[in-house]
Amino acid sequence: MIGRLGLVAAGAAVVAAPFAASTYHVLLMLPFMAYGVVLLGLNLLFGYTGLVSFGHALFIGIGAYTGAFLTSTFGVRSLEAIVVTAAGLGAVVAAPVAALCVRYVKIYFGMLTLAFGMVFYTFVLKFYRLTGGDEGLPYLRPSLLGFGLEGMSKTDYLTGPYYYYSLIVLAVAAVVMWRIVHSPFGLCLKTIRDNPAKAETLGIGVGRYRWYAFVISAVYASVGGALLGAPIGNVDPTLAYWTHSGNIVFMTLLGGFASFFGPILGAFVYIYLEDFLKSLAPSSWRLIFGALLAAVVILAPGGLMGLVRAARRGASPRPHDPARA
Amino acid sequence: MTEHVVRVLLSGVFHASILFLVSAGLQVVFGVQKIFNLACGSFYALGAYVGVWAVQMYAAAGGPPAFFIVPLVLGGLLVGLVGVVVERGLLRFVYDRDETFQLLLTFALVLMLEDAIRLTWGTSPLSTGGMYLVYGQAHILGAAVPVYNLVVIAAGLAIAVGIGALLTRTAFGRIVRAAADQREMTEALGVDMRRLYALVFTLGTVLGTLGGALVIPATAAMSEMGIELIVEAFAVVVIGGLGSMRGALVGALVVGVLRSIAISVYPELEMLLIYLIVIAVLVLRPRGLFGAAATAT
Hints:
The structure holds 2 protein chains of 2 kinds.
Chain A: H1 2-20, H2 23-48, H3 57-73, H4 79-101, H5 106-126, H6 128-131, E1 137-138, H7 154-181, H8 184-194, H9 196-201, H10 206-232, E2 234-235, H11 242-255, H12 262-280, H13 285-299, H14 303-313
Antiparallel strand pairs in A: 1-2
Chain B: H1 2-33, H2 40-60, H3 69-79, H4 82-89, H5 99-121, E1 137-140, E2 143-146, H6 147-169, H7 171-181, H8 183-188, H9 193-215, H10 225-240, H11 245-265, H12 270-284
Antiparallel strand pairs in B: 1-2
Helix pairs in contact in B: 1-6, 1-9, 1-10, 1-11, 2-3, 2-5, 2-9, 2-10, 3-9, 4-9, 6-7, 10-11, 10-12, 11-12
């Protein structure tokens, strides 16, 4: 009950933000919503299937570069077309990558995803003529639902139509993901996470289900990448670098991978905390972030949601291990 | 033609020597503690900065240039002791956790060390100046090669032989190998695991920082050098096989020499080629060339 009230309050706050909050903070909501979509997908793999990818920045990169290519090379400005193409390309790339990766678990799965991520990164970095190399490609202002909105100033565009467009994409993504994880399919994934051998004897095709989860998560990451690129206006290879993959895993852990909304909370806290620390301590914000991550890993592996739950239960926060959850 | 080939190969072997040191550190820690240490690249960067700093102090104090290698190596070795602090202060809390958390903890170290280096030495690249060519150039089959490179290659080989002897011929090595194979049994036989883990992690760290110190006369120290090297070291251990020392040596040679050839023939391919090999190895032979059986599923 309290959880549902909290969700409604958070939703109302996000809808009202462009009218109440400063432009600066409203602009920060855009990467938050884009990462929210990415993390919903990543957590299907991490929290629900028990596979930790260190290469999902690959799909963020695919989504962002799709937007950049379509708007600046092919003259396609419709964001609907960009999102659909990004999702399709994400799935096409993920299909063979997932087929190879899901043959392994744990550290080998992580290493293989990292290697694929770095293949994409080096490709966009080195093939300068196609991708603009380290300077990247411009991501021109996309039109929304057929409206060009060229007359608006960039800030008005981003804090108005683009903001609500991102919010709707995030909401739809969340509803779809909610249905996925609460379906029989989602239950199968959890069974695979907790006991793959048992899942196999129950007749669940473990490899096939892991493959589905991987491809769905890649589609989410690509859509999130397409949303992430437009407000920046330029897409460069660092989006696909391995540290970016590490950061999104960090966000998931920070919010709490064991909870459906945990990763979204993690993205929110990460984005605002990063911004706050960057202005407070420009040269040592990574140090503080690293210490925070270490503290979460050692003291509160359940993340913020884990702490909230523990507090509500009145018990002291207890480490929560996904392998034994 | 031979001149060009020799130069490309030797530059590849030089890079391989450095890569071997860092990868050997990664391997020994993975072998015993089963932790894939993403921060080994950051230790390498730390060693590089301390190396530059030590050499600059030495030069400022008026030490003879010919012996600059002494403060360089000493600095690289001593800063490796930070490994004890990291192991006792952070890693020991997560040994019984899922490996995801162990991996993320070393990622936290990457973030912390990167800023710690920036805060201490600033953001502009540092170099040791003219020390690189103090020993002059050697001419091998017509190719001019800095003697320093040959010294590092020899040092890399000597350390490889030394680690091999340490692991196979000493009591400590037997304990390390036993702990890597059968942790519980080794502990039951009365080996103090806390001490062993601290020692092994420190050994791994020292190998990384020494690698960083040795590379530094040939290049400049930059704060991103750590996160760039870790992905190469990662390729080395995957190709060679996780946890295997022989694998680290062969993997380092493969990655170092191929990279050097790719740069001279078709630069766009450089790391792309390495990662494609990594994927091929992971898919076809996940245990690598020399590794123990991988855990599939």
